[in-house]
Amino acid sequence: MPLGVRIFLAYFLFVGLAGWFVLGTVMDEIRPGVRQSTEETLVDTANLLAEILRDPVRDGTLADSRLPELLEAYGERQPGADIWGLRKMQVNHRIYVTDARGIVLLDSSGVALGQDYSRWNDVYLTLRGEYGARSTREDPEDPDSSVMYVAAPIRDGQRIIGVVSVAKPNASLQPYIERSQRRLAWLGAGLIGLGLLVGGLLSWWLSRSLLRLRDYAQAVSEGRRAELPAMSGGELRDLASALERMRTQLEGKAYVERYVHTLTHELKSPLAAIRGAAELLEGEMPVEQRRRFVANIGNEGARLQQLVERLLNLAQVEQRQGLEERVPVPLRALAETQLAAQAVRIEAAGLRVENRIAPELCALGERFLLSQALANLLDNALDFTPTGGRLRLEARHDGAWLELALFNQGEPIPAFALPRLTERFYSLPRPATGRKSTGLGLNFVQEVAALHGGELRVLNREDGVEACLRLPSVAD
To answer: Where does the HAMP domain start and stop, copy by copy (predicted)?
Structure first.
């Protein structure tokens, strides 16, 4: 079963059960809630009537008053009220009055006049000074025929001289209860439906995002080109970033393997060229052609020597556990020495060189390793500086540390390459030739910096690139 379907089913089950429980609970509370509100209204009405009836009951003039006539007229009224879309065409209150013994003195329905109601809870409790109310079925077999009765005492001072009860059939409330239940049912069903729709969309979005990430990971595992999908959610975005980092690491390992094959090929090519030239030189040929083949042998031999020397130097540095010496190394003099060694190349490219290192600044370390590290940085900078460009050497003092900075004018380093520049065998194509180097120079500089307790950072600057070598400073 697809993940999105499983998520939706779990969500559906949760929302459905929660909606059913909440909706059922609220529906069950509508009926008692309406009846409680009605009872509160009956209490107010009974107490109002108790005050109106006090004098006629006390004076014994209730039967001779206009109240019987008024109650009869009240029972015949047709309100014609529109309540929540329901038409009310008759009044439903029944009102009766008893004396202090519970004998009915007045009944708006006319059916209980002269009867003893002292045993009904509404009258019985009220005569005892308590809250009197009851609910009684008009038809014992019909639960919908129940009527609410609420009584209030008629007092003469502190003495209870009678009781007035107000009754209302529960059947008159049923249309409003049913209407509220219907509206709540529709609203509840709508909310549950909306919740399920949102859940469906959420499940679809999550499933789609995971499928895109799965397809991306599958494409990477198969070696196909794939673009990292854009994720909007925080956790999904983190997952996508983690997959991208994993891809970068895997591709880095694969790149090393490929570069080993490339390096082998690089060794074979100059060896084959040297061997071929040597074989040709065994025969007779013009002097000019012989000189050309001899020059080829020299160039290929220098190429092999450079590759082997860099590998040996790097291996030697990696195996070291510490420095052989810690002496003050003047950085300006060190930079001038390396610039002089590259003078021919600098002049041929028409580069402008600025050596801004203060003469008094000295790093504490091994002179030979620092000289080799600076040589690698300068060689790398020259490879990427365009004709007529600018080089600048600076040294910044920062407490116990010095930062040697070499700036070269040129194109910025791509963002994807910045964190990998110091990886062994990783190299970018040179602008002039399009060829890559051995990819060992910056890795060697990083190892030298680590031996000195410092670090190497390569940063893009305005109009160029800056390599910063952090080294311990000589104490003042």
So the answer is: 204-255
CATH superfamily of domain region 3-179: PAS domain (3.30.450.20)
Who has greater pLDDT, 371 or 272?
371
Distance from C-alpha of 448 to C-alpha of 455, rounded to nearest angstrom? 9
| ∠ Cα 227 232 236 (to 5°) | 75
Domain boundaries, the chain: 3-179, 234-317, 322-472
Per-residue pLDDT, averaged over 52-56, amounts to 89
pTM of the predicted protein model: 0.40
Return the CATH number of 322-472, one of 3.60.150.10, 3.50.50.60, 3.40.50.170, 3.30.565.10.
Answer: 3.30.565.10
Q: What is the CATH number of domain 234-317?
A: 1.10.287.130
* DSSP one-letter code for 352: E
Would you state the pLDDT for residue 265? 47
Q: How far apart are CA 52 and CA 173, in angstroms?
A: 27
Instruction: Give the DSSP per-residue string, 51-113.
Output: HHHHHHHHHT-TTTSSHHHHHHHHHT----EEETTEEE-S---EEEEEETT-BEEEETTSSST
For 135, the token pair is: 């609910």
- Residues 21-32 have pLDDT tens digits of 776 776 677 777
